[in-house]
Design brief:
five-stranded antiparallel beta sheet, F-box protein interaction domain protein, Neuraminidase, F-box-like_dom_sf, globular, mainly beta, 7 helices, F-box_dom
């Protein structure tokens, strides 16, 4: 590719002289260089020429850039302000771990007038669910905070108003993931309804591109958050995306509610599998103290739970789907984690792991802290905003992935 000079050269007397020789760079080298740049810089370069626009818009380049960008993880942060609405920002994790005493704040904001639920983050896209309780409707929007683009309203759903009595309730839970085999982003919603002792479920899948909902096979197990719909932290087990699958913490059945397992939905085949939890996990934790939680941490499916009401335990599955590969990463005393309200039902969530450094979110005070596994010390993360650490902080990576 030829890169012409931007202007003519002139000597001190003002006379024009021969321009610099034309610089030629092969497209392969340009692609390699661009793939390491930040999204905001690439978006600016996209307007430089038609050839650069074509290179940067190519899906192969978008994937190449995403692969490089994934080596520099961020956290998405959310907070509400009365005048400015719902705010979304990202913060690079390397800055936080290099300087734990830094004040977390980002000027690169994306503001939304209406409050929404952030369902999940995948390849730089956020899936947002907006609800109208007046009209009993909800819809989706997809947002790329790095490119500051968002989709139009998609996936309109009409639903029954959630109602809770001593005999019945109805609610819907959303999850967001990516099917690499078809390069399709999918949203899964599980509608659950309970009448006395009977349960009924309906599962729908929305595919970005086709922009329509389809019914698939209903659940073969009972999700943990169906029982905990009244508990304020039931959202922790809405379903997590990992390598083209959505995973839920479930019971084997209503009768055997003490037996936990993982239900996995393959987004490619849209079929289910079940996995067992670690064999060393014994006893039924009190759901009013710390409910078992599935998360994706350090590129592994992880499982955390309470141990004897005194310790927080985290496991990770080294080989996805293989029960024998469960390995305990750490066990930490609540005293070291500064959790004095654990017995009052306040949940603790592990939101990021980087070697010996772990980030926890504390529901009691809605703040986050970094715990050092070696030193056994905890340091609160400073922030300028009322960030929803416990409910909203999610893994995020900057990308060029389009929202349509």
């Amino acid at each position: 590719m030829d890169i012409p000079p931007t202007k003519k050269r002139r000597c001190r007397s003002g006379r024009s002289i021969a321009p610099y020789p034309t610089l030629f760079l092969p497209d392969e080298l340009i692609i390699e260089i661009l793939s390491f740049l930040r999204v905001k810089n690439i978006v600016q370069l996209k307007c430089l020429s038609k050839s650069w626009f074509t290179i940067i818009s190519d899906p192969t380049f978008v994937e190449k850039h995403l692969k490089n960008s994934s080596k520099h993880p961020h956290l998405t942060l959310f907070w509400n302000q009365r005048k400015e609405g719902f705010n979304i920002a990202s913060f690079p994790m390397n800055r936080l771990f290099k300087n734990p005493s830094i004040t977390v704040y980002s000027r690169n904001l994306h503001r939304l007038k209406n409050h929404c639920i952030v369902v999940g983050s995948c390849n730089g896209l956020l899936c947002l669910v907006f609800q109208s309780y007046v009209h009993n409707k909800c819809w989706l929007r997809f947002l790329n905070p790095a490119t500051k683009t968002r989709s139009k309203k998609l996936g309109l759903l009409c639903y029954s108003t959630p109602h809770y009595t001593s005999y019945s309730y109805y609610h819907s839970k959303f999850s967001f993931g990516y099917d690499a085999s078809t390069r399709t982003y999918k949203v899964v919603v599980v509608h659950a309804e309970k009448n006395e002792a009977s349960w009924k479920s309906e599962v729908e899948v929305f595919s970005l591109g086709n922009n329509c909902w389809r019914n698939i096979q209903s659940f073969t197990a009972v999700p943990l958050n169906w029982f905990n719909v009244h508990i304020r932290h039931s959202h922790l087990n809405d379903g997590v995306h990992f390598n083209g699958t959505i995973n839920w913490m479930t019971y084997k059945s209503i009768i055997h509610a003490e037996q936990f397992q993982i239900l996995s939905l393959d987004l490619s085949t849209e079929t289910y599998k079940t996995f067992l939890l670690p064999s060393d996990f014994n006893g039924v934790p009190s759901l009013h103290i710390q409910q078992p939680v599935l998360r994706v941490l350090s590129d592994s499916l992880c499982f955390s739970h309470d141990s004897n009401e005194t310790e927080f335990v985290l496991w990770h599955m080294k080989e996805y789907g293989v029960q024998e590969s469960w390995t305990q990463l750490f066990k930490i005393s609540y005293q070291n984690l500064r959790m004095h309200n654990i017995l009052d039902g306040y949940q603790l969530a592990c939101i990021y792991v980087n070697g010996d450094m772990v980030i926890f979110a504390n529901e009691f005070r809605n703040w986050a802290f970094i715990y050092n596994l070696k030193d056994k010390t905890a340091e609160k993360i400073k922030t300028r905003n009322s960030i929803q650490w416990f409910r909203g902080a999610k893994d995020y990576v900057e990308s060029l992935v389009p929202v349509h």
